[in-house]
């Protein structure tokens, strides 16, 4: 499988060079706005877009702004809840799908989860708002009037699908003989799950949890619909600031959160790499099966 | 020994494993199927008064008639245009990139490049869009740079145009195109390309007749993953398009958030789903017809080359 330059194929190095340039241009394109946000987070002026001078004022202002800190905290707490639900439901479901792919329940769940993944966020958002209102107000389940509960439930749907497909991909690559051996040795089911299956699944569960967390942290559209005033999550706060006028504080807080997301990503990457390859994650994420 | 024990034990194992999917199924049914069903139900109702959001006492298709009025059709057409153009541009930009990543980048560097593609994917898309707003705004650095280079005299403003919205959506959904394309191209055995070359095909022929047909599932997945969320996106349009970039998503959102007309908003959401579904079906059909025609032509070519062969 040598792909080197061969005599008689003139023009090949040029095409390769063009592809290299294209690749680097696309990466530059992808990073342009992120670089801009990071640079402008050091803008000491009052308006985000007009550069006044270099300074850390925006960071100080962001961390002392009660609204910003509260929005970020709402987002982090919602993301933690959504990730927890997604991990529990998704791990069980992904395991079941990998071990019993032909079952009727399995096929139905797979179809529904795929549907969740491809439904435009706005449809999920407009569907969940009346649903929460009828549950919380009409059915008097006051649980669903809590902003945190609404965000957690809304964000857990997509995240459950992601975790399910990650866990299923991981489980499909695993031989079931270990579990069978344990069963033959009369290990009870729960103990078997804890001692054999869970350690095998751990990388995908961990990766899924972190992905669920970041997905929830970033969700804007669904959150805008289901949020309750008083517990506005961070992206919705930013979106309202777009209309009211953007200040460098937003860029500063975004830079901080970018740093945290990157740290989480690095952990995911390390775990996946140790577990052997990034393809599972990419597959599950991109919905390609 | 095992065969004697495996029968009943496998059955005993199977029951709980199948049941393990039911919590997720119940969750999805309760918070996805039921609410979306409710949207369909509301869309057949009406807004009875100023302070009520919906009523289903009379079932009617009037909301659909209302949703298909002139303003909405203009917006639908605009959204569809942006959706199709954005998806096509994502494919045009993403395909060479994914090919480069899967074939040309050395394997030990591939992980790093893949991570680089993933970083923007995991950065809040609203923040990234605001980054573009800063770039494109008249007082932003792009405008200043162009002015200092003498390219333009007046402050350069691309903000709040259709072009800015197109740039924003292409930017935001490009990773969704690159990832499945990369996965599909990466799966193709390199020796197939080598074989094609050894049989005398040039680079373009290999691309058109070996690589692209094999990458078809990835292309289809990429198109879906870009087109569907793009059609529902209104945040990008709101940040970069202002009033000019009105997308259907904004109209739906305003029915729920400002006008408090859930019946009309639901009807518009249903129309949006239908428009997306019809476009996807039409594209899939066109793709299938193209494939069929190409395959037939190639078969007749092959049959002409090697008579009697069962090609």
UniProtKB/TrEMBL annotation, chain B:
Gene3D superfamilies per the UniProt record, alphabetical: MetI-like (1.10.3720.10)
Residue ranges of the TM segments: 20-42, 82-102, 111-134, 154-174, 219-242, 262-295
Key word Translocase present: no
Domain ABC transmembrane type-1 stretches: 76-283
Localization in the cell: Cell membrane
InterPro entries in the record: MetI-like, MetI-like_sf
Keywords noted in UniProt: Cell membrane, Membrane, Transmembrane, Transmembrane helix, Transport
Pfam families xref list: BPD_transp_1
Membrane topology: Multi-pass membrane protein
Family under the similarity heading: Belongs to the binding-protein-dependent transport system permease family. CysTW subfamily.
Protein's name in the database: ABC transporter permease
Taxonomic source organism: Microtetraspora glauca
């Amino acid at each position: 499988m040598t792909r080197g330059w061969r005599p008689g194929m003139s023009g090949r190095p040029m095409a390769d060079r063009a592809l290299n340039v294209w690749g680097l241009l696309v990466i530059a394109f992808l990073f342009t706005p992120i670089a801009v946000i990071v640079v402008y987070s050091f803008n000491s002026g009052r308006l985000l877009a007009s550069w006044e001078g270099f300074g850390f004022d925006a960071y100080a202002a962001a961390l002392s702004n009660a609204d910003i800190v509260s929005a970020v905290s709402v987002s982090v707490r919602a993301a933690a809840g959504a990730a927890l639900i997604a991990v529990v439901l998704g791990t069980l479901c992904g395991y079941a799908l990998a071990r019993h792919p032909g079952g009727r329940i399995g096929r139905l769940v797979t179809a529904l989860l795929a549907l969740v993944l491809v439904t435009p966020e706005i449809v999920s958002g407009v569907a969940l708002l009346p649903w929460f209102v009828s549950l919380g107000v009409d059915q008097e389940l006051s649980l669903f009037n809590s902003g945190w509960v609404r965000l957690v439930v809304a964000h857990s749907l997509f995240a459950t699908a992601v975790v399910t497909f990650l866990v299923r991909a991981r489980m499909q690559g695993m031989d079931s003989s270990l579990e069978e051996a344990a069963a033959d040795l009369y290990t009870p089911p729960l103990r078997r799950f804890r001692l054999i299956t869970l350690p095998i699944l751990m990388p995908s569960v961990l990766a899924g949890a972190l992905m669920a967390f970041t997905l929830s942290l970033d969700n804007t559209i669904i959150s805008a619909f289901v949020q309750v005033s008083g517990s506005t999550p961070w992206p919705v706060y930013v979106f309202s600031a777009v209309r009211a006028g953007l200040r460098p504080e937003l860029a500063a807080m975004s830079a901080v959160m970018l740093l945290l997301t990157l740290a989480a990503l690095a952990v995911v990457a390390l775990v996946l790499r140790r577990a052997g390859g990034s393809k599972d994650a990419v597959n599950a994420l991109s919905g390609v099966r | 020994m095992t065969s004697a024990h495996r029968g009943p034990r496998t059955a005993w194992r199977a029951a709980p494993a199948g049941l393990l999917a039911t919590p997720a199924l119940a969750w999805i049914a309760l918070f996805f199927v039921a609410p979306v069903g409710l949207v369909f139900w509301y869309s057949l109702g009406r807004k009875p008064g100023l302070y009520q959001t919906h009523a289903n006492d009379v079932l009617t298709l009037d909301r659909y008639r209302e949703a298909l009025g002139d303003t909405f059709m203009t917006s639908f057409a605009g959204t569809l245009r942006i959706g199709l153009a954005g998806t096509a541009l994502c494919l045009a930009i993403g395909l060479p990139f994914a090919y480069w990543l899967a074939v040309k980048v050395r394997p030990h560097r591939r992980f790093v490049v893949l991570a680089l593609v993933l970083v923007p994917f995991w950065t809040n898309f609203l923040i990234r869009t605001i980054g573009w707003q800063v770039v494109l705004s008249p007082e932003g650095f792009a405008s200043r740079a162009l002015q200092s280079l003498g390219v333009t005299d007046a402050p350069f403003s691309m903000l709040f145009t259709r072009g800015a919205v197109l740039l924003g959506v292409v930017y935001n959904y490009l990773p969704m195109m690159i990832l499945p394309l990369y996965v599909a191209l990466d799966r193709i055995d390199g020796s197939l390309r080598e074989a094609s070359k050894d049989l005398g095909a040039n680079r373009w022929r290999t691309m058109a007749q070996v690589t692209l047909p094999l990458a078809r599932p990835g292309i289809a997945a990429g198109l879906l993953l870009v087109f569907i969320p793009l059609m529902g996106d209104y945040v990008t349009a709101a940040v970069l398009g202002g009033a000019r970039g009105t997308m259907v998503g904004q109209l739906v959102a305003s029915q729920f958030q400002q006008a408090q007309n859930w019946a009309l908003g639901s009807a518009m959401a249903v129309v949006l789903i239908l428009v997306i579904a019809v476009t996807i079906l039409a594209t899939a059909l066109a793709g299938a017809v193209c494939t069929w025609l190409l395959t037939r032509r190639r078969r007749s070519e092959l049959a002409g080359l090697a008579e009697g062969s069962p090609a």
